[in-house]
């Protein structure tokens, strides 16, 4: 039984933990504000202060003892990585020659890429060596991203990029096989290998490469010859599927999430330019072959024994079951709707009908499958529905579809999405399934809001102004964040934080799309097209229609920042790497949008006011961190 004295001793620690988390968020926002306002040279001092405070929190025994080791680690690493991320652009800016010097040699694209990624990678490797799982995943993401970005910046051929990525994926297979299931190297190999394999075929998620605006989108347009592309598709998607199986066998949630996101994204290069030479047929045959092999494993004992042997080789001591093979078959069938259908050239209503049939069958299968296989398939179905929107495809019978059928499609689609989310979450009450349901619903709600606010006569090329773009982009995810906070308050910590992690991730990437679309250069918008799967609320390019001087953008950013602070406070009760990463991502880009919008609305006066608050917040936050004292030792 816990005595009254012990209970009282816990209260100050909880208050200090919340204060430390709030201080960390405010320090991060202040760092971004000061970074944006000061000249290039003093930025080094700003970033040095942020990194120093981060390491100070990390290595302070008194802070860890008072606020909790997990809370101190989350705040400290977040500040260090934020400073490292901002350090890359500063190094690039400092290395560029003076524009007035016409005879100076321009900076090499390779040097730009190295300077951009080196600080982040160095600190990630440092934290990964200390056993931080989130840093391990970060290393797996940054390595293939940096290689692809460097090759594209150096104008390497599409064949060179594809072969390099396939070789990297094969090396990752070796790393994974030789690593134990609980080894950090296993997660690094799964993450890096999946991104490399899908990058070889022009798909996958390369968020850091897209952030740099290096022209990855333009490089993806350079097609391989049909025969070479077919081999690349089979090898790349086959290796990606292998990493997905390994992640499921080893119960690697972080690696499996990266694999799932990478595989779900349709090949951007094939969507921009229709494939030829039977490439689209091969793209459809890959998931079909996986379905056939999985069904054979379920029906035939020798095939099941072979599958179990392979599973035991990938995870020593493990095996497989008919239920797991059924989940693999369902996942492959859903991936057919996201990967192959968009490039087959079929009419919209056929695509929608096929997708609905496949997802309905996969939903029934996921409900009937118990345990992890059913939960994995449930998450895949929900994400597949979010990416394809089959109900909307059914209403797009031709290109002249008017406003009325699309509005009806949005409403019916929301009903279908809500029904699927309710059924699958009810069958599998796991945080991953809740996160997938959140991803589906925020996108569908944004779609409904978009068509509910469309004026009469709206058509392609007609911009939408006022509060509508901001409302569509942010209202669904802020509402989802509030739901997540309510779940946390009611005791469902893991489920609430799953909702919050998705909401923060969508907010962060949506704000990035806003910076590149509404406030950025035209050439950066092509690179940001690859962010579409990460911005489900960015319906019809709502982020590009936000007015640079709209007060709605500022108020939306403020609401998002309040959600960031509230979400960060939930990590006091239950540490969460996903929520912490979402806080950093959303806080960084939302603060940038707020600062840019404030300067456009109020000019230098408002910018100076924001700058004053940032400096005051930095001073107050630093003083708070220094003032934290170790708790008194209890007498035995």
UniProtKB/TrEMBL annotation:
Gene source species: Actinokineospora terrae
Q: Which UniProt keywords apply?
A: Membrane, Transmembrane, Transmembrane helix
Q: Does the keyword Transmembrane helix apply?
A: yes
Q: What is this protein called?
A: Uncharacterized protein
Residues crossing the lipid bilayer are: 19-38, 44-62, 74-95, 107-127, 134-153, 159-177, 189-212, 224-246, 253-272, 284-311, 348-367, 374-397, 403-425, 432-452, 464-487, 499-519, 552-570, 577-597, 609-628
Q: Which domain of life is it from?
A: Bacteria
Ubl conjugation in keyword set? no
